[in-house]
Amino acid sequence: MDLFEKPSLKFVLFLAFSIMSVIPVLLLGWWVVDSARESEYKAVEEKHLLVAKNITLALSRYAQDTASILEHYSTMPLDELDESNNRLLRSQNITSIRVFNNNVEQLISIATENGSEPPPLTAAQLEAVIANAETDRTLFLPVQTNSNGQPTIIIITPIVLDNSILIAEMETGYISQLQAQVKFGKLGHAAIVDQTGNVLAHPMPEWELQVNNISKVSAVKRMMNREIDVEEFYSPAKKADMISGFSFVQETGWGVMVPQPVSELEENIAFIKLATLGVGVLGIALAMLISWFLAKKMARPSQELAELANHFEVNEMQPAPEPVRSYTREQYELSLSFHNMTHALQDKNSELLYQSQHDPLTGLANRNLLKKYLQEKINKQESFIFALLDLNDFKDVNDHWSHAHGDELLQHVANRLIDAMSKKGLVSRIGGDEFAIVFNADITKEKAESLVELLRGRLKQSYQVIQDTLSIDCCCGLSCYPQDAKNRSDLMKCADLAMYAAKKENNTTFQWYQPQMRADLNERVELTHILGEAIKKNEFIIHYQPIIDVNNYSIQGFEALVRWQHPTKGVIPPGQFIPLAENSGQIIPLGELILDSVCKDISLWNQQVGTSVPIAVNLSVRQFDDPDLAKKIEETISRYKIVPSNVEFEITESLFAENSFQIQDLLNKIIDIGCKFSIDDFGTNQSSLSRLKNFEFHRIKIDKSFITELNSNEKAERILASIVNIGKTLKMSVIIEGVETQDQLHVVQALGCNYIQGFLFSPGVNFEAATRLLKNKTINPGDMKG
Question: Does 323 sit behind a cis peptide bond, omega within 30 degrees of 0 on the bond before it?
Fold first, then answer.
């Protein structure tokens, strides 16, 4: 229907007055006088309550839009925000955004006006943030005064991926604008308070600036209790009895009240009575009938508008129906605008929903959608297989090439995963270089294994990334529902444990979850937890394995081997606790403890035996994270007054993979002290030949795997011979580890190797036994066996 075919409100009123003026209603005059008060109060109550609800609806939409925007920005780095993002934030009266970590320490802060550093949060604001940091949803905090003396509202939005939080600071300008639009009579107005009764918007500006609290007012108390009603109460501000409609905002807990002095109502009633007396019974009857007719006429479209709004809310932002055709022109325009607005908001909501459930880089489902999908399958009690897939050495791509290479590589990987799965399940990216796959219910374990092998084959094929050719491999952990877990979180954890096991097994293709994996995890967690206390109590002992000259079987030194002597668990081998110490950073204090014990024993041997031999001490890659490592080594050697050359450090080839200037500098400083270095497990990691020419190494230690493979691998002896010749050429001594039989000893002697270690001569022994060996100076093959 054309808008111009609708009558105007003025025409409706004119028509109503015209019709009512010809109706003989003289007998209703006295009824008008008697019912004037009731009619006036009823009309005011309905009007105030309707206005309160309309303001509530506007604030509700405002809060929803603000929350949606912040939740969207919580999924993207703040340094990627551009001016269009800032304009969107400013349109919601947001002046700054900040990111706090899970310890409530500020990481990032940006002012939306110019992108500069915003003023710091006040102590009260920071205290409120700390008190509410554990929220799992967007939260509007009570209004407070910021460092500039302006009333602001802190909004907290959780960031799911790393358990940090997004903090937004919103001014109350929009709320004040809504309040300023409402006026009734002389003193009738609107007032808006937060969930604690603090003033957000009020006709008295000083109340906003001072953040006055009016929670003692009975109507405010009821609003804070989330009631919707009309009430008469006494206002200390106006020093008068007031009548007010009030409502509350569901999303924030704010209260909206529309009060008007009762005296103004009484003045209107008195005027009606006076007019009735002045113009006679006919005029009174006519005026009241017109008022009654208009009230009835106007109530119907207002009710229909409220139903449209309720439809929009109840049906989760589904568009409102077509505008009601019986409206007046103005009302029809309002309804049409509301209808168009719901369509626009639905489109925006659909866009935000997609962004909240999909990875912006690859377009795959993100962690949010994955969790939802998993829960839906669990609710349907479907049996299915879940897989976690992690790219091997992806960090090297970012570090060696660039993050642009890494991003494009991830996009290629995502495309290949989708192609390989071909509707056999849901593929998602849940963070970094980690992907997840939820296989369809008809995929068996055998089929899942085949698909994983297929995926790996596809992924290992080379990629053309920014004019460079790259390749990547992956590891996968699989778990089954409901066999391995009964809920979503445990199922994902089982797959994660399986993936960890696959990586631990030299990056094998995949591992199925086994209950023992959780037991191993619990044991690792327990050992990590008690490791720090064990270091403080010095529950560690040092065993010494002799290094033997192959020519005369004389003892040329020892290798220090640490053991954890736990009071209840007994002796814990280093293979169990050293990796935990490295991962937790406790390897640094543990390394200091080991070096101190070794230096102390060297000093005791000088006193008791009158001589000492070099002691080899293992240094972890993680110990080189300590910039004071060389200084601590020098202080320990000086404290026990021993010769620095009697301390020899063993490092593995993996240390050079770090390619760090700090590591090279520390190596040179330790050599300057007088200590020596040897390369342990030579030949089992990255190529070391380029490193041998750049650093001053004393020995090469050949891993025992070469000895143990002599009978099964015909190339092992030739490799041994080559390494021994390299050592001789570079004038470095060579130690072969793991010699356990006479045949192996003969091979080593034939190769011309300098030194050996192994159980054929001696295992690691305690200080007392090592002292006896040192006094004897030599040890024959087989002497320590049995």
Answer: no
Residue ranges, the chain, pLDDT below 70: 1-37, 40, 269-339, 342-353, 506-508, 654-660, 683-695, 711-714, 785-786
Summarised one tens digit per residue, pLDDT across range 240-270 is 888 888 999 998 889 999 888 888 777 776 6
State the Cα–Cα distance between residues 233 and 279, nearest whole angstrom: 35
Look up residue 424 and give its DSSP letter. Answer: S
Straight-line distance from the first to the last Cα atom of the chain, in angstroms, rounded to the nearest whole number:
106
- State the Cα–Cα distance between residues 574 and 580, nearest whole angstrom: 10
pLDDT score at 453: 87
Instruction: Supply 338's token pair.
Output: 């509301």
User: Residue length, the chain?
Assistant: 786
Question: What pLDDT is stored for residue 303 in this prediction?
Answer: 58
The single-letter code of the amino acid at 497 is L
List, as own/partner pairs, every contact residues 214-222 make where C-beta atoms lie below 8 angstroms and the sequence separation is at least 24, other chains included: 219/244, 219/246, 219/257, 219/259, 220/193, 220/255, 220/257, 221/197, 222/246
Q: Is the dihedral of CA 325, 328, 329, 333 positive or negative?
A: negative
Distances (CA, A) of 292 to 14, 25, 550, 641: 15, 13, 117, 107
Q: Which long-range contacts (CB under 8 A, 24 or more apart) does 685-689 make?
A: 685/652, 685/653, 685/654, 685/657, 686/653, 686/654, 686/656, 686/657, 688/653, 688/656, 689/726
Distance separating alpha carbons of residues 369 and 73, to the nearest angstrom: 17
Amino acid, single-letter form, for residue 511: Q
Per-residue model confidence (pLDDT) at position 3: 43
If one counts every other C-beta atom within 10 angstroms of the C-beta of residue 620, the result is 19
What are the pLDDT digits (tens) for 523-542?
777 787 888 888 898 889 99
330 CB neighbour count, 10 Å cutoff: 14
Residue 151: strand pairing partners: 145
226: nearest Cα among 194, 255, 259 = 255
372 within 8 A of 433, measured Cβ to Cβ: no
- Measured between alpha carbons, how far is 71 from 59 in angstroms, rounded to an integer? 18
What does the pLDDT read at residue 557? 92
What's the CA gap between 112 and 94, in Å, rounded?
7
From residue 402, give the alpha-carbon distance in Å to each of 123, 268, 393, 406, 464: 41, 76, 14, 6, 14
- DSSP-derived 3-state class of residue 251: coil
Q: Cα separation of 478 and 496, whole Å?
A: 8
